[in-house]
Specification:
six-stranded parallel β-sheet, single chain, 221 residues
């Protein structure tokens, strides 16, 4: 059964992970410096502030932490506002859910303004009743709070609500809280692919065939 749907943004609706993986390299290139191999992996686990400190120390940048954070934030903001694409098949998938009268909301650990700017530009924001962010809820996706808040907005029970996520920890959290889970493939999570496959109720290599998803979702109790 499916009465409501909760969608993550980065890696699910948007093909946005490359900007996070390559942000440090792009920034250093703009300063005329060559990035070390694997810089994306090093910075990915850091906050922007920690990343700024690393860049200053490693590359001898003559900038303050605040200046670098501002520069990186601007790069990311411009990418979402102007460049980030939808993942293939997303538009049709959302259209089909909407045609089935399934209410939808966003639950993202990312920035609200970036998500809304991208989804509005791509003309899909209107499919969603609301946008929930981890920073506004006050906890990350290792806790179910954001999903429970989204379900309240949808007025649905977790057991009838599908959560679309790409990361293993988020899928695991939602499933443990009683939600149905659809794992969406994103290459940034290849290292956890086996766990994702074994945990999610449905695995979606892509948003290719809505009818197959719908049939399987409706058959689940």
């Amino acid at each position: 059964m499916i009465r409501g749907a909760i969608f993550d943004v980065d890696g699910v609706l948007l093909n946005s992970m490359p900007v996070w993986e390559n942000l440090g390299e792009l920034y250093l290139n703009s300063l005329g410096k060559e990035a070390e191999r694997g810089l994306g992996d090093i910075l990915f686990a850091m906050s922007l502030e920690e990343g700024a400190d690393y860049l200053i120390s490693r590359y001898g940048l003559q900038k303050t932490r605040e200046e670098i954070v501002e520069d990186l934030t601007r790069e990311v903001r411009d990418f979402y506002a102007e460049k980030v694409p939808l993942k293939e098949g997303v538009r049709q998938f959302l259209y089909e859910l909407n045609e089935k009268k399934i209410p939808m909301v966003i639950a993202t650990s990312g920035d609200r303004k970036n998500a809304e700017a991208a989804l509005k530009r791509l003309k899909v924001l209107n499919y969603f009743q609301a946008v929930f962010t981890c920073s506004e809820i006050g906890s990350g996706k290792n806790q179910p709070d954001i999903y429970l808040a989204a379900a309240l907005q949808l007025d649905t029970e977790p057991s009838d609500t599908w959560v679309f996520e790409d990361a293993f920890h988020a899928i695991s959290t939602a499933k443990s809280a009683g939600f149905k889970t659809a794992a969406v493939y994103d290459s940034s999570n290849d290292k956890d692919l086996a766990q994702i496959w074994n945990t999610a109720d449905i695995y979606l290599p892509e948003f290719a065939d809505f009818n197959i998803f719908w049939k399987r979702a409706c058959e689940m109790k």
